[in-house]
């Protein structure tokens, strides 16, 4: 049974999250329904990360098993046809080994976060950024962020319903930079780790926003981390600025994927 990797982009606003739910729209459910239009029957796909309601993706990766040996480009096109008009797109597709797994084969996840700083309501970026009505102190936030990089017990920044076996994780990168957004000044966050706890990124961004507006000192982030207590965390920020940007694998499955095949020159007979 051929296995295919799918690179997925979606707007999380209309969905209850990635994971299939009985009575709520989900990204997983939308893709599985599209697969059933191509090959009748039940389909179950797995993903690199289970994003929450309202969270977006630029580079989510999933895999599916099909009975037909599809050309990756044709599979991508067929799925996109059946996904319309939902805000979900398969942006690449590749045939992979039968034991390749979107979740367990991944060695790193990368998330990004957009924070818009302006008083007027967002229009074009509504639902795509977290908006605050004041400017933030980037240098203070960067100083606070340094306390979180590395191998730590992240209990403080972990949801009370997190199902991870351990709160101990290694945060490989946390960078914050100024971004000249079309709607006004933004801060862009980039985070990298092998895996993340439930609500970890949103808890971190919400806490650092508190530093940026002067309610916390940068060293208060270290004290919150060392408390290993959820009550010590700053507010969890809204989901709409969060994006699953990329899942990284030892070998990129899309090197010879649908887009590469489409761009390859035609063979001469």
From TrEMBL:
GO terms for biological process: tRNA pseudouridine synthesis. Keywords: Isomerase, tRNA processing. The keyword Isomerase applies. InterPro entries: PsdUridine_synth_cat_dom_sf, PsdUridine_synth_TruA, PsdUridine_synth_TruA_a/b_dom, PsdUridine_synth_TruA_C, TruA/RsuA/RluB/E/F_N. One of its GO terms (molecular function) is RNA binding. Its EC number is 5.4.99.12. Substrate binds at residue 111. Pfam families: PseudoU_synth_1 (PF01416). Residues 9-104, 145-250 form the Pseudouridine synthase I TruA alpha/beta domain. It catalyses: uridine(38/39/40) in tRNA = pseudouridine(38/39/40) in tRNA. The active site is at residue 52. Formation of pseudouridine at positions 38, 39 and 40 in the anticodon stem and loop of transfer RNAs. Homodimer. Belongs to the tRNA pseudouridine synthase TruA family. NCBIfam families: hisT_truA. This is tRNA pseudouridine synthase A. The gene is truA.
């Amino acid at each position: 049974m051929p296995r295919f990797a799918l690179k997925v982009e979606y707007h999380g606003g209309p969905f209850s999250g990635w994971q299939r739910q009985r009575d709520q729209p989900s990204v997983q459910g939308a893709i599985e329904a599209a697969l059933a239009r191509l090959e009748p029957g039940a389909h179950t796909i797995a993903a690199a990360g289970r994003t929450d309601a309202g969270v977006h993706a630029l580079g989510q990766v999933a895999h599916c098993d099909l009975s037909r040996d599809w050309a990756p480009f044709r599979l991508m096109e067929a799925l996109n046809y059946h996904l319309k008009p939902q805000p979900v797109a398969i942006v690449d597709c590749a045939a992979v080994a039968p034991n390749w797994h979107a979740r367990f084969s991944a060695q790193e996840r990368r998330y990004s976060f957009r924070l818009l700083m302006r008083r007027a309501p967002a229009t074009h970026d509504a639902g795509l950024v977290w908006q605050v009505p004041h400017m933030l102190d980037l240098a203070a936030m960067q100083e606070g962020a340094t306390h979180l990089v590395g191998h730590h017990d992240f209990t403080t920044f972990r949801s009370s319903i997190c199902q991870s076996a351990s709160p101990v994780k290694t945060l490989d990168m946390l960078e914050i930079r100024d971004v000249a957004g079309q709607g006004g000044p933004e801060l862009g966050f980039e985070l990298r780790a092998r895996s993340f706890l439930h609500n970890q990124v949103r808890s971190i961004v919400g806490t650092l926003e508190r530093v940026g507006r002067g309610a916390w000192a940068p060293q208060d982030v270290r004290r919150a981390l060392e408390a290993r207590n959820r009550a010590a965390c700053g507010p969890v920020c809204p989901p709409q600025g969060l994006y699953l940007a990329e899942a990284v694998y030892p070998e990129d499955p899309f090197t010879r994927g649908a887009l590469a095949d489409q761009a390859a020159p035609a063979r001469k007979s």
